[in-house]
Design brief:
- This protein has helices at residues 2-6, 8-17, 19-31, 44-60, 69-73, 96-107, 122-126, 145-161, 172-182, 184-194, 209-223, 232-236, 257-260, 263-271, 302-320, and strands at 36-41, 64-66, 84-90, 111-116, 129-132, 199-204, 226-231, 248-252, 275-280, 290-293.
- The protein has 338 residues and is an alpha/beta fold.
- The chain folds into two domains: 2-169, Rossmann fold; 172-320, Glucose-6-phosphate isomerase like protein, domain 1 (Rossmann fold), CATH 3.40.50.
- The chain has a five-stranded parallel sheet, sandwiched between helices.
- Helix 2 packs antiparallel against helix 9 (172-182).
- The longest helix has 19 residues, at 302-320.
- Keywords: Repeat.
- Residues 25-167, 190-328 form the SIS domain.
- One of its GO terms (molecular function) is carbohydrate derivative binding.
Amino acid sequence: MTAEISEQPDVLAGLVAARADIAAVARSIAARPPRFALLAARGSSDHAALYAKYLIEVLLGLPAGLVSPSSTTLYGANPDLADVLLVSVSQSGGSPDLVEVTEAARRRGALTVAVSNTPSSPLTGVAELAVDVRAGQEQAVAATKTYTATLLALYLLVDAVRGGEGQDVRDIGTLARRTLDESAQGVARAVDRYRFADRVITAGRGYSYATALEASLKLAETSYLAARAYSGADLLHGPVAAVDEETAVLAVTSAGKGGAAMHDVLDAVASRGADVLTVGSAAERMPAAVRIPVPETAEEVAPILEVLPVQRMALGLALARGGDPDNPRGLRKVTKTR
């Protein structure tokens, strides 16, 4: 996990260099304009799919939703998907439910796109179009480089559909390296402060909600923490009542509308005595016990960077708590569900 976190700047730079391949897929999508988009995924890829949902809704102005695979695999639902774009996101491309959903959607008229780190996977084989995230083999169970590469691939795809040329991510490899280097001390402080935490809430708004979800998953699977993710808005709609002095709150706060919307959330949890950690390009402007800033980018690009110190924190906490982040108990690299 340590090595694969460190590989990310080079992986991201390499993916930007291969943008032409993704742009070719985008041209095929633009030639068949969809009436709306659906996204199918599991695990970390589901968080990447949520990020893509925001991209599609905000940048393309299209309705977008997340698929419930069991609607197809368990209940045999047969909706009309003519003129629909289905994007299936899977690092391994091997989960039977995603393969079945993609096959079924293609039969029902959808334009299907597989976004995967495994070009020879079953998922890629059944989709009409494919995007290779080019992260290289990932051995650690906890996804790190495949997650950020998937985010970037999805951004490049959506940006190219709208006619963009990836300008906001042209230096993403350099920015990722800066993020890892400059956040090291803040991560170390966070690990020291939260190594004995029992309960963690992660929260974000907008594009950064995906990062909050991924942060919760990483803390749970590597450090066995009771971590729960919320949209900042949903946190205020009831769950904030459970926040107290024993609660650690990891708030993802990058510059932009989503980060600005987190001010009320942080005021609420702080008033209840929570110990707050902020991560993101707006972190230093937020009330918190520990702040981990990252370089500022366009808001829609921020999740690619803001998750990097979170990955390092999950790794550090796992080691500090005596765990083995490369071999979390009860988990395998590829999980096959139906």
